[in-house]
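TICKET #2291
ISSUE: user wants both folds in one file
ATTACHMENT 1:
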Amino acid sequence: MLYRVMADAVVGLHLAFVLFVVFGGFFAWRWPRLAWLHVPAFLWGASIEMASWTCPLTYLENDLRVRSVAAGRTDSFVEHYILPLLYPELLFPDGFPRSGFIGIGIFVLVLNGLIYWQLWTRHRRHPSNS
């Protein structure tokens, strides 16, 4: 039971990180210093998607899931409903297309690039606001 709870906690952390990667630029709009955390995070997230790397949180979660299976656990709410949000390949019987992951990476780069371009132009017009 402990391993399942720990694995679910890692999934929660992973989901929060993914949401921060995608939408953190909007928070940086309100709190510009947050950009120092968000820019490396969104570059990392986009790189993971586009290069087919595996996030270290995925390795940790998988290890905890294996340990919980050994302890006889059944699927949890998180495994059933949240994991497909993090791992789209779980929703596709033949696997999520590689182009889909590249598209996700490009979306993250373009969205956050636009946000930071707006922040940068705002800062150049009104340097005292940041």
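ATTACHMENT 2:
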Amino acid sequence: MHWNKLLLLTHAAVAIPLIGSSVHNGLLSIRNLLGRPTPVRLRRLYPQVTLALYLAALLLGSIIYPAFRVEVRAAHLDVVHPWATGLFEIKEHWVALGIPLVIAQVLLPSDKGRAPVTRFRDLLGVATMIIVVWAGVVGLGLVVMEPL
């Protein structure tokens, strides 16, 4: 198996639990915004897991990007599916915007002692969930669309 294919599969394999952790975190954030009880331990854990997976996916994506740019994007997507190139670029920009959101969630307190800060942290959790799900749908969709 070509190394780029193995890295792409690993990148996708990291993206799947990233989607799961960000959705769990986002749903806990929504519950907290609605005033429903949420476990503080999980409100601390999910952003940390999300950040670790986010950075791993980002690193793997950065490693395979040069080969993708030449072998897939320039050779095929730009010619046959230019709309897919556009979606990919939008995904990349949103992923970059999501990095500080995840970092802020890890750094901000998760208890209810500081209500405005906690609400802001919860909004970041919901925004991160939206970004990660969008990136996952687009990224995994491109993997499915382009045969390995």
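RESOLUTION: both attachments delivered.
EXTRA DETAIL ON ATTACHMENT 2: The CA atoms of residues 26 and 98 lie 13 Å apart.
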